[in-house]
Structure formats: C-alpha cells, structure tokens
Design brief:
2 domains, single chain, six-stranded parallel sheet, six-stranded mixed sheet, binds 2'-monophosphoadenosine-5'-diphosphate, 279 residues, alpha/beta
C-alpha cells in the first residue's frame, strides 16, 4: 500500500535503534488493518534527545515509542506524564495531542500483565508470593505491575542487593530485597518466578539457578525473548512448571501506542509472533 499525503506517522526513538523489532511489529499491524500510516526507526543520540522529542509536534508526528537509553529523558521532557510513567520515572510511549502538547505514558507494566493474561489465563498474582530476578528498568515495570495486580509479597532477588533495595519504594508494603545466594528460600512457596536480568539472552551468560524449591505449579516467565525458549524456561518446563516466554510483553506493550496514533485497537496473534520473530 502506498502512503498518501495524509499518512499518520509514528516511530521508535532509540540509540542504537537498528535492533528494534518495533518497526516490524507496527508495520504488520498497519498492513493488516490497511491503515494509511508509517512507523519508522529514529536513531537519536543522547545529545539530541531533547531536540528530537520537541520536534515531534513540529514534524506532525502522531507520537513515538521511546526505548533505551531515552526512557527517563522522555518522562522528564514530556508535557503531561501519566501515573505509571511518573512512578517508574520512565516513559516508552509519547502521544502528540491536538494542541501540540506531548503526553508520556509507560506501557511496560501493561505489556507484562497482558502477556501473562493471554498465555497463562489461570494465573492470579494475588495467590501468593512472587519472585522477580533483577533490578534494572524492566524489573521496575514488573514490580509495579505485580504490586498493582495484588501480589501479597514481591521478593526482588538481585546480584547487587542495594539495587534491589532501591526498587522497594515502588511497592513499599509488599516488596522486599533478597540477596542472590538466598534464591532457594525466595523460591519456596512462590506462585511466580520472573527473570528480568539479561542472563540467558543471546550473547550473555546463561541464567543458572536451582529450581528445586520452586513449587511445581508456580508459573515461570522470562522477559528475555532471544532465544524464545531460554535455558530457564526449558528447565522449568522439564520439571512440569507452566511457562510463558517474553515475546508477548514486547507485543502487548505496543498496543496502547498503536491505538493512540492510528486509531485502532490492534490484536496480538500467532501471525504477529511469527512476523516479529522472523530473522
Ligand atoms: P534493564 O534496564 O534492561 O533491565 P540493566 O539495568 O542492565 O537492564 O539490568 C540488568 C540486570 O541483570 C541487573 O539486575 C543485573 O544485576 P546487577 O544489578 O547486580 O548488575 C543483572 N545481571 C547482569 N549480569 C548478571 C550476572 N552475571 N549475574 C547476576 N545478575 C546479573
């Protein structure tokens, strides 16, 4: 389909941005729904992020996604910041409003929960303690999501304990930081284990933990999706635990932006998974 002069334009701002799967993801939706619109990669170095964000209304962009390393800057520079982005101190979705103001939101927590909802419909976050491995940006979104979903206890396990402690304010009454060597105790009686560390990602060392104390019905989710089946998911599945891979978090976090820019609620389908995973 050709673009007309009225095409709606959005994109993803990152540095680097060449690895991003978002242009393909949104491109598939635009094609599927026959929308006169485009979604483009926007490589913006840290020194130009303010100029780039301020230029969105001037260029007539409907908005943009924002990825590493610009999510904090996006939350700082936007005119209106929603509750999630404010709590996380990071935004991944910018929408240019009719008056030219830039609204910032964060759909990472939404994407995380929607992925579990779609792939593990019986899972209830309020059914018992949950374990989050890692304390980076992704862990922050997961902790906020689980707190909002009613998790009674969130055990944040991280190699650097101080970083885990630094996340506890996101869910003050339920989060607690635990050191990596206490993993076995953290897993006992858990209903969910989520890996948010980079371990297990292609090119990174594997995540090697002893799942022995994890209850057999506990759900295991890895937010790493390259590879789709990480060693963690393989060993959890081998001992009979239900598992959910990380691709859906990426796909679902994209929904609110697409809806806001292009006016249509998109669907996360097996077709979309195939398109986004294709080499
Ligand atoms: P992001 O913002 O994308 O989540 P990040 O800030 O780089 O990424 O965080 C990566 C996470 O992986 C951190 O929790 C990190 O632990 P530290 O806080 O101790 O650095 C974790 N991580 C990376 N390599 C690790 C390793 N070899 N063993 C244990 N944890 C590791």
């Amino acid at each position: 389909m050709f673009l007309t002069g009225k095409a709606l334009i959005a994109g993803v701002i990152g540095w680097p941005v060449s690895h991003s799967r978002s242009p393909r993801l949104h491109g598939h939706w635009l094609k599927t729904y026959g929308i006169d619109g485009a979604y483009v990669p926007l490589a913006v170095p840290p020194t130009r992020i303010e100029d780039a964000i301020r230029a969105l209304p001037a260029l007539g962009f409907a908005g943009a996604n924002v990825t590493v390393p610009h999510k904090e800057a996006a939350a700082r520079l936007a005119d209106d910041v929603d509750d999630f982005a404010r709590r996380l101190g990071a935004a991944n979705t910018l929408v240019v409003k009719p008056d030219g103001r830039i609204a910032a939101s964060n759909s990472d927590a939404f994407g995380f929960l929607e992925n579990l909802r779609q792939r593990a419909p019986g899972f209830r976050a309020n059914a018992g303690p949950v374990v989050v491995l890692g304390s980076g940006g992704a862990a922050r979104a997961v902790v906020v999501a689980l707190a909002d979903a009613g998790a009674p206890e969130i055990r944040i396990v991280n190699r650097t304990l101080a970083r885990a402690s630094g996340l506890c304010h996101l869910a003050p009454s339920v989060a607690r930081a635990m050191p990596w060597p206490d993993m076995a105790a953290a897993l006992a009686d858990a209903v969910l284990l989520v890996n948010t560390t980079s371990l297990g990602m292609e090119g990174q060392p594997p995540l090697e933990i002893d799942l022995g104390r994890l209850p057999p019905r506990a759900l295991v989710n890895d937010i790493v999706y390259t590879p789709l089946e990480t060693a963690l998911l393989a060993s959890a599945a081998a001992r009979g635990n239900p598992v959910v891979d990380g691709l859906g978090m990426l796909l679902h976090q994209a929904r609110p932006g697409f809806k806001a820019w292009f006016g249509r609620e998109p669907e996360v389908t097996d077709d979309l998974r195939r398109v986004v995973l294709a080499p």
